[in-house]
Structures are given as C-alpha cells and as structure tokens.
Design a protein that fits this description.
- The protein is of the alpha+beta class.
- It has one domain: Heat Shock Protein 90, CATH 3.30.565.
- It is built from four helices and seven strands; from the N terminus they run H-E-H-E-E-H-E-E-H-E-E.
- The strands form two sheets. It has a five-stranded mixed β-sheet with strand order 2-4-5-7-6, covered by helices on one side. The protein has a two-stranded antiparallel ribbon with strand order 1-3.
- A hairpin with a 3-residue loop joins strand 6 and strand 7.
- Helix 3 runs antiparallel to helix 4.
- The radius of gyration is 15 Å and the shape is globular.
C-alpha cells in the first residue's frame, strides 16, 4: 500500500541484465529443483547495460519468476532470454527480456486484469505482484506485456532502455 501511495525515487546505476537475472536465479534455484522445473537461460553476446535501480529490478524479476514457479506445481520448464533490439518507433536500443513458463496459463477472460491492483487468481496473496512489476518497469521508461495460453504457459516480455 505504501509503495503505491508514495513511490520511491529511483537511484539508477548501469547494470548488466544477465548479472541481475543470475542473482535472482540463485535466490530461487532451490524452489526450481523442489518443483521439478527445468531452467534455461540465454543471453545475447555483448548485451548492452541498462540504467536501473537494481533492487527494484530484482524485485520485479523475483515476482515474475515466483509466479512462474507457482504456475507449474507439477514441474515444467522456465526459460529466460535477454537480447537487444532497436525500438522502431523511438529509434532507441532496448534490452528485451522474456520469461517463459510451461504452466497453467492465464484464462482469457481475466487477462485484461492481470496488472490491476488487488487482482489475483490465487487462493492466497495480495494481488499486488504484477501491478508492482508494471509500476517498476514503467518507472524505468520500459514496457511490460505478456502472452498466455491456458494449458500451455505464459511469457512475460519486458523492454528496458539500454544505457
């Protein structure tokens, strides 16, 4: 609640997205193993740095990865890719990150609500995780969206401006 009513000022630093992802994976690797989730990561060679608040980006990545783990209670695959791409509209380079799971997917009738505050499909939880992710990405002048198919899985696509 406090987070939304009084957003923090961002102290930005140049960071390598691959380092941030590796940090988060170290935090959740026991959960991946415990749930029988195969994990893969792929980073483009010479991936540009991003100008970010490290703690906020780690929080966003943790939220997305924990959601993916929870969507695969009987195992599955989680893959993370990071690559650079030129935004055609703005003619600026972005680092694009995809987090893809083979979980339950998001029902089509609720997909328009996933970034809404307090919306959840879980039995427990606050419904703030994805709205916080969206707020963090937007505060970094980025973009977040997803693609999901029930029974197949979900992919979150995050774009952050390259430093």
């Amino acid at each position: 609640m406090i987070y939304f009513s009084n957003p923090k000022k961002y102290q930005l630093e140049q960071k390598r997205m691959s380092d941030l992802i590796k940090r988060v994976i170290r935090l959740v690797e026991n959960d991946l193993t415990k749930h029988g989730i195969a994990f893969s990561q792929e980073f483009e060679d010479d991936l540009p740095s991003v100008l970010v608040n490290e703690n906020e980006i780690v929080e966003m990545l943790l939220n997305l990865i924990i959601n993916a783990i929870e969507a695969m209670p009987h195992g599955g695959r989680l893959s993370i890719k990071a690559f650079s791409k030129l935004d055609q509209n703005q003619q600026k380079p972005f680092v694009t990150l995809t987090i893809k799971d083979t979980g339950e997917g998001i029902a089509p009738e609720v997909q328009h609500k996933v970034f809404d505050r307090y919306f959840t499909t879980k039995d427990s939880g606050t419904g703030l995780g994805l709205s916080i992710c969206e707020r963090i990405v937007m505060a970094h002048n980025g973009d977040i969206k997803f693609e999901s198919e029930q029974g197949v899985g979900t992919t979150f696509i995050i774009k952050l401006p390259a430093a």
